[in-house]
């Protein structure tokens, strides 16, 4: 057999690695910007009634809103809020999915119960369920996180359950036990590393979903409070002024949300390819 | 002596793949097992290596039940080596999961030092099969179930693999159950040959 390049060399020339690193850099830069800018909250909340509804200028890159607040600062703050809500909801949703998938693999009855739960949640209208849970929990950041997490685990649970069932029957897993390895060793060294890419990718792909739903819930009035500069709040406010020609009120927060969602979508897909040695070297 | 007494097992309720199969395999013996596709050869091989729960019957090693924990003294080698190894592990780690063969033994199986850093998909089927065979020869293993391990290999690689395995088996007094369709190969390798039909051992071929 001809010599093949080592994985490290192959990764070095892999365009997908560049893509993943580029996306990761973008996200890190965004998070860093939002965390280290101390004046952001002050600037986002500061009103200047002399500068109401200004179009984008060199002083206000994204323009100002109806209270004369800097839309750039408010958009960045909104994206920061979306990041936290999205991350928490995606993490919680992934943990629920992993736990239920593991439960389903214990025995047939547990599998049937989990299957019924998955089908039930998938069968209900998505947005209505989200609104009901958020409303029942009284709204606010925590309610949105819980609502998004509680409605976004079924698809990932299905994927993880199928993967786990397949892995349990895999020859190399059975052989590992015959080589005297403990159940803990098999779970830690064979099952979890095989599931990790699915969890990471599933979680990352949940992320944009969670962000969009947070924005949608807030837009509809069931999510974050109107006082918070969430993207959903900014978009809802902009609706009143779009027809009057104040396009920047909706365009910039919308574009920011779109870029954030796209970045996570790209990152998820790039990670999926990078975490599998075979795919990484293609 | 590895003994199967009247074993019955199946995958679905009410349907038995193996029905009352009994056989004996002595240390150092090479036993051939053939039969039509779907007759239960691989199921029998896996059962002997403890991969299946029996519906009835028993498996014994020197008159005692086979151990449930620790290294299993009967190792099963599958036909497709790609399925027998973790695709995310390098060859060195795959071997070390069972034991650490010395360089001389690795050399006898044609496994170079540079292979240890490779992933399974960077080896050919024949090369990977040699890795799987060497891995199964951990100290403490007394019987091997070779389930059509050479059916995907070319004639030269087949001959080399069987030659090396025969030498090691002789040194270690390993009993080997060779499962396959190639009657000429079974005749050349094995002292006895069995025929499995519809889950039952019919007669010595």
UniProtKB/TrEMBL annotation, chain A:
Q: Report TM segments.
A: 81-106, 127-150, 187-207, 219-239, 245-264
According to its UniProt entry, the protein's GO biological process terms are: transmembrane transport
- According to its UniProt record, where is this protein located? Cell membrane
Is Cytoplasm tagged as a keyword? no
What family, per the record?
Belongs to the binding-protein-dependent transport system permease family.
Q: Which PANTHER family match?
A: ABC TRANSPORTER, OLIGOPEPTIDE TRANSPORT SYSTEM PERMEASE PROTEIN APPC
Which protein are we looking at? Peptide/nickel transport system permease protein
Q: State the organism of origin.
A: Franzmannia pantelleriensis
Automatic annotation (TrEMBL), chain B:
Keywords of the record, alphabetical order, are: ATP-binding, Nucleotide-binding, Transport
Gene Ontology biological process terms from the UniProt entry: transmembrane transport
Annotated GO molecular function terms are: ATP binding; ATP hydrolysis activity
Task: Kindly give the Pfam families that the UniProt entry links to this protein.
Answer: ABC_tran
Extract the InterPro entries matched here.
AAA+_ATPase (IPR003593), ABC_transp_ATP-bind (IPR050319), ABC_transporter-like_ATP-bd (IPR003439), ABC_transporter-like_CS (IPR017871), P-loop_NTPase (IPR027417)
Domain ABC transporter, chain residue ranges per copy:
2-205
Q: Does the keyword DNA repair apply?
A: no
Similarity comment text for this entry: Belongs to the ABC transporter superfamily.
Q: Which PANTHER family does this entry report, sorted A to Z?
A: D,D-DIPEPTIDE TRANSPORT ATP-BINDING PROTEIN DDPF-RELATED (PTHR43776:SF7), TRANSPORT ATP-BINDING PROTEIN (PTHR43776)
By what name is this protein known?
Answer: Peptide/nickel transport system ATP-binding protein
């Amino acid at each position: 057999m001809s010599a093949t390049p080592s994985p490290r060399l192959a990764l070095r020339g892999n365009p997908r690695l560049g893509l993943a690193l580029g996306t990761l850099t973008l996200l890190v830069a965004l998070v860093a910007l939002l965390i280290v800018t101390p004046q952001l909250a002050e600037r986002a909340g500061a009103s200047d009634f002399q500068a109401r509804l200004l179009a984008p200028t060199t002083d206000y890159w994204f323009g100002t809103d109806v209270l004369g607040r800097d839309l750039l600062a408010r958009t960045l703050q909104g994206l920061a809020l979306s990041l936290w809500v999205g991350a928490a909801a995606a993490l919680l949703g992934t943990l629920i999915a992993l736990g239920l998938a593991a439960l389903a693999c214990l025995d047939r009855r547990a599998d049937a119960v989990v299957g019924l739960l998955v089908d039930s949640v998938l069968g209900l209208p998505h947005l209505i369920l989200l609104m009901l849970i958020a409303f029942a929990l009284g709204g606010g950041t925590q309610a949105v996180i819980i609502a998004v997490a509680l409605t976004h685990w079924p698809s990932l649970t299905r994927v993880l359950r199928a993967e786990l069932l397949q892995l349990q029957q895999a020859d190399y897993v059975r052989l590992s036990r015959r080589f005297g390895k403990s159940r803990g060793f098999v779970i830690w060294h064979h099952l979890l590393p095989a599931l990790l890419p699915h969890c990471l990718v599933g979680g990352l792909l949940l992320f944009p979903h969670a962000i969009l739903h947070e924005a949608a819930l807030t837009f509809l009035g069931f999510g974050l409070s109107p006082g918070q500069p969430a993207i959903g709040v900014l978009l809802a406010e902009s609706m009143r002024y779009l027809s009057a020609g104040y396009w920047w009120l909706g365009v910039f927060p919308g574009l920011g949300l779109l870029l954030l969602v796209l970045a996570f979508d790209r990152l998820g897909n790039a990670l999926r390819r990078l975490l599998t040695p075979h795919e990484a070297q293609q | 002596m590895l003994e199967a007494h009247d074993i019955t097992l199946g995958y679905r309720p009410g349907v038995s793949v193996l029905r009352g199969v009994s056989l004996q395999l002595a240390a150092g013996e090479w036993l051939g097992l053939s039969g039509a596709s779907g007759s239960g050869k691989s199921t029998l091989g896996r059962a002997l290596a403890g991969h299946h729960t029996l519906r009835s019957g028993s498996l014994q090693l020197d008159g005692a039940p086979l151990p449930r924990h620790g290294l299993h003294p009967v190792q099963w080698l599958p036909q497709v080596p790609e399925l027998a190894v973790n695709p995310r592990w390098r060859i060195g780690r795959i071997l070390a999961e069972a034991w650490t063969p010395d360089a001389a033994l690795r050399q006898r199986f044609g496994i170079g030092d540079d292979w240890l850093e490779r992933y399974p998909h960077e080896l050919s089927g024949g090369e990977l099969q040699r890795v799987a065979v060497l891995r199964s020869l951990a100290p403490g293993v007394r019987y091997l179930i070779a389930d059509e391990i050479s059916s995907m290999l070319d004639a030269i690689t087949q001959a080399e693999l069987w030659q090396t395995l025969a030498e090691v088996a002789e040194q270690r007094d390993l009993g080997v159950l060779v499962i396959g369709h190639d009657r000429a190969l079974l005749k050349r390798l094995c002292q006895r040959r069995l025929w499995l039909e519809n889950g039952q051992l019919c007669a010595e071929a």
